[in-house]
Amino acid sequence: MTTTRVAVDVGGTFTDVCIMDEETGEIRIEKTPSTPDDPMRAIMTGVSQAKIDLADVTLFSHGTTVATNALITRKLPRTAMVCTEGFRDVVEIRRSNKEDLWDTYKDVAKPYIPRRDRLTVKERVDAAGKIIQPLDEEEVRRVAEILKKRDVKAIAVCLINSYVNASNELRVREILREVMPNVHISTSSEIMPEIFEHERFSTTMVNAVVSPVVVDYVSRLSVKLTEGGYRRDLLLLHSGGGVMTPASVKDFAARLAGSGIAAGAIASRFIGNL
């Protein structure tokens, strides 16, 4: 039995399927036109063209631009943000430093979540992690009901200083899940537990908006591969150059932004070392 490793990259024009024979080290490549409406179709077409028996595949890795394309085109599901009262404009104000200080006409990208869908709750944690204002849980429930009526598909929970004490954020998530059990929820204390609100809030916002798109795509691809005979984890290249499983994608979808770009950089290093 010949075992193989398969790597797939979906580009804007072509989908490349790279197959390596584990015994001989031989590498061959199949190309097939990409299908932007459903990238998975091109992947399975490429696998079929390459005459791969997925039962003999020991590793299936995938570099994808699904998250990147969703962010660029802004074809995203409706997403909300729940944050500390007084801080819902952090993602719009950004940091105080400006690249072009005197350019009054400079356009900046609008936040992925509009102000109307950035709701606030009363709570406050100081820089040392001490709770100086308890979370108003009834207000959180009211906010949850509002978001349920708006039929949002994902929520970013971003509270001040949650990187040092995440208890309020985690409680907000619990309440939101009680009201909306099927909504994707990203908390800033898990996505980016670091100081500086703008970076933490913005990264969590990106994770929230791409989660429904990416998780749906990855889940369907995993099922399709399993139905074809593949018995191991699908490995997805993330922006840091490593890989993650579909289970990790459910929590950290934003890490797939830049996946295909990272694959190109790693491939260049590999080729340069030949």
UniProtKB/TrEMBL annotation:
Example of a GO cellular component annotation carried by this entry: cytosol
Protein's name according to its UniProt entry: Hydantoinase/oxoprolinase N-terminal domain-containing protein
InterPro entries per record: Hydant_A_N (IPR008040), Hydantoinase_A (IPR002821), Oxoprolinase-like (IPR045079)
An annotated Gene Ontology molecular function: 5-oxoprolinase (ATP-hydrolyzing) activity
Taxonomic lineage from the root: unclassified sequences, metagenomes, ecological metagenomes
One matching Pfam family: Hydantoinase_A
Protein species of origin: marine sediment metagenome
Xref: PANTHER family: 5-OXOPROLINASE RELATED, HYPOTHETICAL 5-OXOPROLINASE (EUROFUNG)-RELATED
UniProt GO BP: glutathione metabolic process
Segments forming domain Hydantoinase/oxoprolinase N-terminal: 5-179
Hydantoinase A/oxoprolinase domain sequence ranges: 200-269
